Amino acid sequence: MNNLLFKIIAIIAATLFLLGCSDDPKKPQQAETTETTSEQSQADTVTEQEQVMLQEMIPMEPNEQNIIKGLYSYHNGKTTFIDCSTNTQYTVSQEGLASELRNTYIALREAPQQKVLVEVKGEYDERTSPETDDDIEMLIASELVSVVNKGSCQ
C-alpha cells in the first residue's frame, strides 16, 4: 500500500512538473521567437565578422611560405633582417637557413655591418630571444631565393 501511494504521488508530481514546463503557443511566445531570431541574426553577423578576422590572423602553413624580401646584415654574432614591405626589423632565428644566410653574407659583404638585399622563403614566428629570454617575432628562413649585394630595397 505504501509503495502504491508513493507511485501515485510521483505520477502526480511528474504530471504537475510537465504541465508547469509546457509552452503554451500564444502570441507572447511568438514575440519571444521574433526577438530570439533577431538576436540570432546579430550573433550570426558577429560570427561572420569573427571568421573573417580569424582567417586574416591564421598563421601561414609551413608548405605555403611566402617569399620575403629584405635587407640582411650580420655583425658581432647578431643577425638582423629589415622587411622591405613593412620596414620592420627582425632578428633571424638560428633555425632553418641561418648559417647559409650568414655564410653567403660574409662572402658578399664589402664592409662590416653592410646590408645585403635578400629574398627568402620563410615566415615570421615567435621565438625566445637569446639576449633577453623574451619571446620576440623572428624571421625563420627555409629557402634562399636570391641575394643581391645592394644596401637598399629599391
UniProtKB/TrEMBL annotation:
A Pfam family the protein falls into: NlpE_C
Chain ranges of the NlpE C-terminal OB domain: 66-154
Sequence ranges of Low complexity compositional bias: 30-43
PROSITE patterns the UniProt entry points to: PROKAR_LIPOPROTEIN
Region of interest called Disordered, as start-end residue ranges on this chain: 25-46
Protein name: NlpE C-terminal OB domain-containing protein
Organism: Kangiella sediminilitoris
